[in-house]
User: What shape does this take?
Amino acid sequence: MVGAILFTVHCSLFTACDDYIDITPKGSITVDSTAQYYELIVNPMRSYYPSSFIMLSDNQWAKESDILGYESQSMDAINFTFNEKADRTILPDNNLYENMYNFIMRSNLILDNIDETTGSQTLKTLAKAEARTFRAFDHFLAVNTFAKAYDPATAATDGGVCIMEHYDLEATPVKSTVAEVYDFIIKDLEESVDQLQEKPVNIYHPNKAFGYALLSKVYLFHRDWEKAKVAAETSLRLNSALVDYNVINDAGGTARNKDYAKENNPEVLSYHWMSGWGGGEQVALYHYGIISPELKQLFEDNDLRYKLFLRDTGTSIASWFDYGSGAAIWTPVITNLDRFTYMTVGLRTAEVYLILAEANARLNQLGQAADYVNQLRAKRLSGKNTAIETPATQKAMMDQIIQERRKELLYGFSRFFDLKRFNTEPEYQKTITRVFPVVNVSETYPQKTYTLQPNSRMYIIPFPHSARDKNPNLTLNTDE
Assistant: This one.
């Protein structure tokens, strides 16, 4: 059975196949050994196009010419102006949903077939653990993008996404609920994390620190605070590395200190990228790298996260940025892969510190929460005054953690997911307001105030029509 599976068939399924085809010769060859299936887990270009959601964030800003006049025509402009009257369901699809489920199908291909291959049982067990880990990651992204955030009061009835547990190109599954999807994700991870290796054969295989980091994040979103704490502690015992931005700054920036380029950033736990506009993450950051005036004001004067990586002046950003907008832009030339690997979608140890801080805060262990925040800030801010004092209340501690998450976890899914989950809790809900445009105000484009309510349906991204056309069971989770 396995010997009849052609590698060329698999290539037609997965995006960027040529980027990983070198694991086997090109052509119609059979994949029938355990080692070959294990190699299929590797995909250095695991990327996700953020246009369907990234502008639905108070962290984000845009070049005005990309928005003005397109308020009902492009997903970026619809989201940036919080235009609930626009029909998002008929817009051309990007590849976000497709990529998530292609990656899931890739994992299922391995899980469904590797037991029939020729090879060691040890490698088969490892391969299945790694495939389940990546499958959980993509289901987690999917349910938090295309469904409501997990809310224990409603998750059992909230429409979620399709759980894909087997490799079946013709399947038309019925959606599971948000609660069912989380149960599936947690089961996959709990069965897998202890079987992962601490040091796999290369960085594109999931390691044990990543497995526990992902499990801690899922527990956090699921409101299992004690479990999130234990899993995060386990992850940090395996890898607690934090890059000291002071070292990079003292050397003259990433142009001079290139110790953390390419595969050498010890904070990076998994290599998952943003992509879009015809290119990879560096290209995507030219278009989606602008932070809002509000976020810019959150950075303290001695915060090296701003000094090293963000700009609001200079000729190199003129084509992508409106001077005078009050915003700032990430400059990809500073962080191309030959200088510094940041990672916007994949997990980093920095996020695990913040997960552990939040888990402690939720358990009302405020001193421990502040300590984890301060361990991170010591590596991100310059000078002696980097630590926060332990707040007097849980709410104040959580507010500090949320603020640190905004500054540390830029781009990708992070702030969008955080807004969704915090909006399910009255004490942390936020109504986002945007005054726009700032620079190009005219009679044609007067300045307006745009508002996004915490319960807006815009936080649930519609399934693309291509997926709905293929699977009539894939009904929308909004009333559009």
Notes: The first strand starts at residue 47 and ends at 48. Confidence is low (pLDDT under 50) at residues 1-29.
